[in-house]
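Onboarding guide, step 5: your first structure request.
Type a short instruction followed by the sequence, for example:

Predict the 3D structure of this protein.
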Amino acid sequence: MKKILATVLAGVMMLSLPAACFADEGKEYKVAMICDSSINDGGWGAACYNAMIAAAEENGWATEVTDSISQNEYYDSIAAYCQLGYDMIYAPGNQYTDAVLQAAEEYPDIAFALLNGNEKTPGEAVNGNVTSLLPNAQQIGWIAGALAGLMTKSGTIAFIGGMELDTTKGKYAGYTEAAQYVAAAEGREVKVLDPVYAGSFDASDKGIEFAKAMMDNGADVFFGDASAVDSGARQAIDEANKAAGSVTVYDIAQPADILGQNECIICSQVTDNSAMISVSMKAVEEGTFGGETIFGSLQNEALSAGAMSDLVPEDIQAKYAEYLQQMIDGTFMAE
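The system replies with C-alpha cells like these:
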C-alpha cells in the first residue's frame, strides 16, 4: 500500500472500509495503524494489518494505515492521524512506545493500542489513554521451540530477530528452553545458535545473509521475529534446499498461518491479535479504554499452532500435539 506521509494526511483522509458503524448517537469510529514494515510483507506487517481489518469489520469501524515508515516518522505519522480525529491509534510493536507515549500526552482524548507494549507502559501514560496488547512471548517461543526440538536432525537450530526488543528476546528464550526440553525428552541435545538482529524489520537482504551463515553453522530449523527479514531468510533456505535436491532445512513462521507460502515452512505460530484489538475497540465505544494490559495466551486461544506440513512425520505431529496440550494445561516443563 502506498505510504501516506504526514503532510498528505493533514489534508486528505482515506477510509479503507466502505461502510462505518455509527454508534453512540451517530459517532463514527475510526482506527489508524502505523507500521515500519510493509503490510504486504507476508509476515508481521501483513498479519498485524489483517488483524486490524478483521477487528474493524467485526465492530464496524473505519480503518487507515501508513506503512513502511522509518523510526523518525513514527511520531509525525501518529500525530497526523490524531489531528484528523481518529478514535484509536494502533501501533503494532514495542518499538513505537516512545512515540505513542508522547502523542498520548498531547492528545488525551485519543486511545492508543500498543501491540507488544510492556506491562508498565499503560501506567506511564499521564492521561491514562494507552493500553498494551501483550501476547505471551514465552508461549510463542514454546510453540515454535517444541517443534524445532522434535524436527532438527543436525541438533542445531536458529533464531532471527528484527530489533532487540524485550518481546523478541522473550520469544527467543521460550524457543530455546522448549527446544532443549523436548530434545532432552527424546534423549538428544539441541544447540541453539545465538540470536542475530537485523536492526530493522524490512531488511530482507539481512535475512538472506543471516540464514546462509547459520546454515553454514549447521542450523536446520529456523524461527524468527523479523517480518521481511524472515522472508529473506526463507528465500535463502528454499534456495539451499533446492540446491540440495530435497527439503532438509525448515522454517517455523509467525504470527499468521502461512503454510505453503514457502516450501521450507513446516508450521506457523499463530497469534490472533484481532481479538485483543476488538476488546480495545469495544472499550473505546464504552468509554472504558486505557490503563490496562490485555494479554493473549494459549489458554484464551489468542495463541495457537497453525496447519502442519506433510514434511513433519505423523509420529512427530502426534508428539507435538501432546506438548501443545501440556502448554495449555500448564504442565509443560513443570517437572
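Each response can be followed by summary notes, for example: The longest strand covers residues 265-271.
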